[in-house]
Amino acid sequence: MCGVTGFVDLLRETTEADGIATVGRMASRIAHRGPDDSGVWADARDGIFLAHRRLSIVDLSPAGHQPMVSSSGRYVIALNGEIYNHKEVRLALEKRSAAPRWRGHSDTEVMLAAFEHWGVQEALEHFVGMFAFALWDRQRHELILARDRLGEKPLYWGRFGGTLMFASELKSFDAHPGFRGEVDRDSVSLLLRLSHIPAPHSIFRGVEKILPGTLLRVAAGHEPVEETYWSARKAALGGQENPWLGTEQDAAEELERLLRQSISLQLCADVPVGAFLSGGIDSSTVVALAQLQSSRPLKTFTIGFREEAYDETRHAAAVARHLGTDHTELYVTPQDAMAVIPRLSAIYDEPFADSSQIPTFLVSRLARQSVTVSLSGDGGDELFFGYNRYHLSRNLWRIVAMLPASIRRVVGAGLAAMPADNWNRILIPLLRAAPARLRLANPGDKLAKAVRLIGAGSPMDLYREMMSHWKHPSEVVLGSSEPKTVLTDESLLPRLTEPVERMSWIDLVSYLPDDILVKVDRAAMAVSLESRIPLLDHRIVEFSHRLPVEYKLHKGIGKRVLRSVLHRHVPHALTNRPKMGFGIPIDAWLRGPLRDWAEALLHESRLRGEGFFNPAPIRKKWHEHLSGKGNWHYYLWDILMFQSWLESGRGTRQGTA
């Protein structure tokens, strides 16, 4: 795991000395991504300046130093990430008549040799891994920027005047004198709907994110050309055209084989490797299969909160004891969590409002004290229908579709008026007598969200409402026009048979890369920890699309086939509990210890003076939240994360209203 940055002076006006100094400053802004080594490569005649920060994981010797030049001298690369199957690719290259002469055993060197042998696009199809890289082709005088299939690693780019810049994190751009950090109000409207800013958009006008599975070619005198080498759309449609014809047991066998293969590759490192463990289905499966392949107890990590609705430590500890891992747990106080809030703008670089960013940072910091690499269970919800919203949306639609739309709207508005805490006081005692699968954590919050959806006109409308925070963000963000996304424009969706398949596909291409993977990458990299996600091996992703819906979601329970794999290694009783997520009690904190901080950021005169937001709807939700008439913490956290980011000084240029 590393950081890459650089720029191309398309006008060839930058001297070598000035360019090297500038790109060095750009790299220093992301030193946390690579504290072990740094390097710069430049060719002022072509106007290319490339820099790298290294977190040494594979081949710790100087032979792994970057930027790295290929053996022929044609290619120069700065790579962020890991090519997990680099040994397999290396063997394939060695079978050629003109086998490479290796300088070390890094995956970066193998990647360069593959580019020389197959060409860039074909080589990418051979790689299994997570990566984002900048590659300079000295023969074609062309820059290639590329990102892995699922979007695990970030890569931004933008053109300002005669300069094209790129970096793993936006903060690198601040060090270039040509950068103009003008806030994109349309992106702010996306933030308010989604809690994040989806690719290709960014918080700054003129800056984009490379899309997952995509490479961008930039040659002097030509417009950038985008090419797709792997498509989530094709993976989904391909699974529909080539469905799994075996039994459910056969599917579990194949899934375990693929998981073992992925985990085996991701356990390979020249530094200590551990794993996050929540005690849920996904992380428990990853840890169970990793421990089977480890010669010593795997180091596992969990953080806990004293608030029962948010604490997973006892579940994780039970799984760890059963598997025999070397387990570490740490209880954090509200003060520990709140101490992270002032750092969020610097960690996430653009406004990002998934409040689980805080515990993700805390567990990453805990893990970094013992390991340099940590496996994660992310991806299981999207691939195997694990989110409660999948079955809730199906069940809710069956009910609401029986009522006329006008009645649904009135009933929904009436029920939504009751605060989530009041629902909890009613529901929690009732659910204690219900089957375990129905005993939801924090049921009042879930019901409060559900009743707001009663007025939806179709299953996909219902899902859109479920996934949206502010329903009409352009009315809140002054001078904005919300761009279309896969959530808001059904024409962008593949023609999949069932609504639940379309829902999970939306999450796979948007919520997963733009929220979950951003959250994990920035939190882990802030403490120089590499996170690896075995479930996102693209072969597992493609396999999941072949499975029938009932192998994933059956009788209201998701991850059916994944549970079958887990229960071969961990007793059902240890993981048979409601899905909790990875959250913190932001709703209560905003009424308590965070109230003064939030009030200062949401003050009406401040909102008016800054000129980004219409204060009226924000103040209304703030007062309702404080009084307990509504639980608007998701909406408010979106605004607060933008306001906090703005206060940090990043968004000083407002753009046009």
**Roughly how much helix do the residues carry, as a percent range?**
40-55%
Second CATH tier, the architecture of the largest domain: 4-Layer Sandwich
Query: Please, what is the CATH homologous superfamily of the largest domain?
Result: Aminohydrolase, N-terminal nucleophile (Ntn) domain
| Side-by-side strand order of the widest sheet | 2-3-1-9-8-10
Please render the helix and strand layout as text:
Blueprint: E1 2-9, H1 16-28, E2 37-43, E3 48-54, E4 68-69, E5 75-83, H2 86-94, H3 107-118, H4 120-126, E6 129-137, E7 142-147, E8 156-160, E9 163-167, H5 185-194, E10 207-209, E11 214-219, E12 225-228, H6 232-241, H7 248-266, E13 273-276, H8 281-292, E14 299-304, H9 313-323, E15 326-331, H10 334-338, H11 344-348, H12 357-368, E16 373-375, H13 380-384, H14 388-400, H15 405-416, H16 420-431, H17 443-451, H18 459-467, H19 499-526, E17 530-532, H20 538-546, H21 549-552, E18 553-554, E19 557-558, H22 560-566, H23 572-575, H24 586-591, H25 595-602, H26 604-610, H27 615-627, H28 633-647
Parallel strand pairs: 13-14, 13-16, 14-15, 16-17
Antiparallel strand pairs: 1-3, 1-9, 2-3, 4-5, 5-6, 6-7, 7-11, 8-9, 8-10, 11-12, 18-19
Helix pairs in contact: 2-3, 3-4, 6-20, 7-22, 8-22, 12-19, 14-18, 14-19, 16-17, 27-28
